[in-house]
Every structure is written in structure tokens, then in C-alpha cells.
Amino acid sequence: MKKNITLTALCLSFLFILTSCAPQNTAQTATVFAMDTVMELTVYGDGEVLRDAEQLIYSLDAKLSATDEHSEIYKLNRDKSATVSADTAEIITRALDICKSTDGALDISIYPVVSAWGFTKDEHRIPSDDELSELLDSVDYSKISVDGRVVTILPDMQIDLGSVAKGYTGDRVTAMLRERGVESALLNLGGNVQTVGTKPDGSNWRVAVSDPAGSGYAGIIETSDRAVITSGSYERYFEEDGVRYHHIIDPKTGKPAASDILSVTVIGESGMMCDALSTALFVMGVDRGAEFLRENREFEAIFITDDGRIYLTSGLEDSFTPSGMYENAEIEVLNYD
Ligand code: ADP
Ligand code: MG
Fold this sequence. Notes:
Helix content is 36%, strand content 28%. The protein contains eight helices and 19 strands. The strands form five sheets. A nine-stranded mixed beta sheet has the order 1-2-6-7-10-15-16-17-19. A three-stranded antiparallel beta sheet has the order 3-5-4. A three-stranded antiparallel beta sheet has the order 8-9-18, with no helix packed on it. It is globular and about 55 Å long. Bound molecules: adenosine-5'-diphosphate (ADP) and magnesium ion (MG). Residues 163, 231, 275-276, 278-279 line the site of magnesium ion. Residues 163, 231, 275-276, 278-279 line the site of magnesium ion (MG).
């Protein structure tokens, strides 16, 4: 009898160890369609935390979408002044700070120009110079005001958080997962990758950087607890008469940024900052971009340029491995010491 009880106790404690370990060690995965892209979530935790992550993404998308008639951004663009949620007020306030620090390379009021090129509805066209210069008259992030939760824009203005929403969402999901005890997760929000901790075995996550000139990838970054976010002219574009028109607009010209960059990947702790900066650095080009990074050392970056070169900030020298077409590419290290 006593033996039986001991055995049962042993079994129970073994079962307890198994079940208490299981949530942390089992990969739970979900595919989410939100923010106009496909997101893949891999969370080492229980199913409930994964479902909550999905819900958080849907709820942020519902507030931040520029095209959904029920969203706060849609209403702001329609009414020019709106009382928004704390989330929306926060993301706009932070985005405006980055618009300023990038000297307008990022400008969330560029939306009417993006629409004129047809990128919002996939009905591509080339606007005339006159049309662009008229639209540019009301592109100016500094005219957006946030007073508590009341956001006000100019009469002809429309804003779009497409350049920062996925990064912000990654930050929010990451914070929620950490709060709930998750130590290991990989969030791929449509090519914007955000990692929580390391892989369960303690090794770094390996994040692929797409090849902007082909279908494979240009290299692998080994990282943990970081966002890895890429903007590139290969992501959304159309071609007419042999010319490629892509979706990252230079707010100074109203045209697709005439950048020497094919893609720029920014790595750092804040997904929103990396998302914003990947767009802004693309507009700046390599020289201005490298200068910006010199002043903002908390970010690492990889530029792939139209002459097939790779520029790396020095912090990535040991963690980036080029692959495929780029194995023999010229790699220039941006060393700021
Ligand atoms: P993606 O969302 O394709 O990953 P980005 O993060 O670079 O790429 O964001 C590009 C989106 O941001 C565009 O689709 C457009 O809506 C908007 N956008 C384009 N140019 C700018 C700009 N200079 N500043 C702010 N937003 C921009
Ligand atoms: Mg971006």
C-alpha cells in the first residue's frame, strides 16, 4: 500500500514536472492576417497567451488602419479632428518625434501622395508633377497636433501609420508576452521580425534578411531580444515603360525615393523605432543614413545598395553572415569609433 502511494506520488510529481515544463517548451504557432500582410507568430508558452497576442494584433489593426472605415485613423482623416484611444495617441506622438529627428524623411502625412500613386488600393498610376506639387502643399507632419487624446490635422491632410504600425504592434505584443512569463518567441509581422529572448535551447534566433534583388535571402542575422526590420523597394512596386516605381516616397519630391539603397534592415530593441527608421533611412540613402546612425548608436543596420554592396554597422560584424548572391559581395563596415 505504502509502495503504491509512493509510486502514485512519484508519477504525479513526474506528471507535474511534465505539464509545468510543457507550456514553455512547446512551440505554439498562429497565422494572422492583419495590417495588410500575413503574420506568423511562434510562442513558447500556452495556447491562451498566443490567442491573446492574436487579439491584441487585431485590436491595434482595427484602430490604426487607414483604410478601415471604422478605424480611428480613418475617422481622423475624414473629420480632421478626433478623440482617439491612448494607443493611437501614443503611436502618433512617437511617430511625430521620429518625423522630427529624421528631418522629415519620415512624414506620416504623406498618405495623399501614397494614394495618388495608387499604392493604397493597388491601382497604380503615375501622378503628374502638378498633381504632386499640389498634394505636397499639405504634407507637413509639424502641422499635426496631439493634445492629450485629441488629434487634429490640416483640412487637406491625411495621415497613415503604415511605416510604424507593425513595429509598434511588435513592441506591444512582445511586452505582453514578457509580462505573461514567455521567455521565447519569434514574431514575423509580414517581414518585420521581433524576437523575445533566445530560442528555448539558449541559442540566438537566426533571422533571414531577404535578397532585395532576387528571391532568396541576402544573409542571416543572429540575434535575441531584438527587432529586425527591413524596408525595401522590392516590397511593393509597379513598373511602367521599364521604370520601377516603389512605395517608399520621398516627402520632399512626392516621388518614390531615388535612393541608392535596395533594402535597409534596422536592428534594435524598439520595433517601432526600427520600423520608422528603416523607412526613413531608405529615403535618406546610404550617406545620410550612415550619418544618422553615427548619432544614434543604439541601432544597428544593414544597407544593401544598387551596386550590390553591403554596408554594415560595426556591431553586426560577428552576427551577420551573407549568403547566396552576397557571399562574395563587398562588405563595408561603418565604424564610428
Ligand atoms: P512595409 O510596410 O512595406 O514593410 P515600410 O515600413 O517602409 O514598409 O512602410 C511603407 C509604408 O509607409 C508605405 O506603404 C506608405 O504607406 C508609407 N510611407 C511611404 N513613404 C513614407 C515616408 N517617407 N514617411 C512615412 N510613411 C511613408
Ligand atoms: Mg517602416
